[in-house]
Amino acid sequence: MEGRSALCWAVVAGQDETVKLLLGSGGGSCRDRRGRTGHHLAAAHGQVNVLGALIEMSTKEVHQADHEGFTPIHYAAYNGQEGALEMLIQSEAAQVADPTHHSFSPLHCAVSSGSEHCLQLLVSHSTVLVNSADASGSSPLHIAAGTNMPAAVTLLLASGAELDAVNSAHRSPLMVAAARGHITVMELLQEAGADLEIVDNDGNSALHLSCAGGHSHGANLLLTKQISPDFISRQNQEGKSSLHLAAGQGLVDTTELLLAAGASVTCIDSAGNPPALSCARDEDTATCLAMILSVYLTAPTETRRSSVLSLGRLSSRRSELMSRLSGYLSESETEVQDSPQIKNNGSGEAGHNSVCSSDSEYF
């Protein structure tokens, strides 16, 4: 299996005496078809005694990469093998920060494994890679934020991690945490001074992402900070403001806070709907709501209220209903809130939101 020699299998099984015997008798090499040496395998499986024997015999393999660019240190960190990682770091041949190795650094690996001790070992040895970016442009801080690791976030920030670094989707660690509703991490990043107004390639801010994900507590946390009314009403590339998204998710407290902060109730999304219609579960419900509000708001008294039936066929009158509703809301907003009209956000190409999925499947 996987082109492993007898030596490889002895390493995986932790048979250190057998390993020593095979090495002493020239028992062949130990490099499988993925290019992993005995050092890789011992590190991955936490076979500390075997790893010690291998290092004593030869140290050149300590920093050698497999066919994908991963070293034994990567394997130890990714699998949370603290003893093996410490032994490798203490080896003079270890190169934690070799730029020729895979962009998914040992720090990325340690955070992905959920091992804060492995992360501590690595940053204590070197902080050179603390702001390294993987194939998706994510730093170790992005991964810590996305996997809800407050202690790792604190450690990385103390080690010089860039607070507002953005990945290929142009999302900061705060935005990654906001999208997943990780409140404690969001609090740590906010306290550190994270920029709340960064937007991603789709025009979404951390507030948009919290609302879209239905994370009311996260959205409310963001709204406790001083954010300009213009930014509160900022629209993403679909024309949706945070109020559209909060209303659509039924986030009552968040909707109330947004309105109190001056969120526009008249901005129209790409489908032509104001935030009020985002409360509807589907297009037909939105149309019904528009019809009712249009009649009610334009004719508040019983004698002046016209029949919904007088509006004619739904298919030919919907645009009129939307226009009337938006017009009324616009006039009301101008009178009551004196809020400026908010334009759609600028352009930007779409980005992805995966974090090292291809790398994490490798180990």
Report on this model:
By secondary structure, the chain is mainly α. Among the domains are: 1-128, Alpha Horseshoe (Serine Threonine Protein Phosphatase 5, Tetratricopeptide repeat), CATH 1.25.40.20; 228-300 and 320-341, Alpha Horseshoe (Serine Threonine Protein Phosphatase 5, Tetratricopeptide repeat). It has 20 helices and no strands. Mean pLDDT is 81; it is low at 303-317 and 336-362.
Brief synopsis:
The chain has 363 residues and is an all-alpha fold. 50% of the residues lie in helices and 0% in strands. Among the domains are: 1-128, Serine Threonine Protein Phosphatase 5, Tetratricopeptide repeat; 228-300 and 320-341, Serine Threonine Protein Phosphatase 5, Tetratricopeptide repeat, CATH 1.25.40.
Keywords for this entry:
single chain; 363 residues; mainly alpha; Serine Threonine Protein Phosphatase 5, Tetratricopeptide repeat; disordered C terminus
Set down the secondary structure blueprint.
Elements: H1 6-13, H2 16-24, H3 38-45, H4 48-57, H5 72-78, H6 82-90, H7 106-113, H8 116-125, H9 140-146, H10 150-158, H11 173-180, H12 183-191, H13 206-212, H14 216-223, H15 229-232, H16 242-249, H17 252-260, H18 283-298, H19 314-336, H20 357-360
